[in-house]
């Protein structure tokens, strides 16, 4: 292939612009991969918009560093294997209700789980585990389970 002799070289300004656009695109892809999809969860006669934590990184981050959940907000942790998934409240600054779910049915509830003191070391954080293996865990604002009268055995409908 021949190139014309009068072809202009790429200007430094264009190269800088091109590299800037490339970096922004790469950062955008990285950030987008961190966003949570949402789903609707219905239980106790109320509907919640739940952020879905369905990857190891999203499950590890959870609600750490987030603002307190509104009345109809939640986070749904989706696991690929049924197990007694253990939770801690690292980086949380507000209390939560933790609801463990198996096949769309509540199998355990930890109401009003408090946030740990800020200075608590990871090894000293309290762990919360269900009595039975589960495939989903729902975190909602503290007091939600009591407000809705949720009980073990209640159904949870997840649109996903």
Automatic annotation (TrEMBL):
Source organism superkingdom:
Bacteria
Keyword Oxidoreductase attached? no
Q: What keywords does the record list, in alphabetical order?
A: Membrane, Transmembrane, Transmembrane helix
User: Which residues lie in coiled coils?
Assistant: none
Q: Which residues cross the membrane?
A: 14-33
Q: Do the record's keywords include Cytoplasm?
A: no
Q: What is this protein called?
A: DUF192 domain-containing protein
What is the protein's species of origin?
Candidatus Magasanikbacteria bacterium RIFCSPHIGHO2_01_FULL_50_8
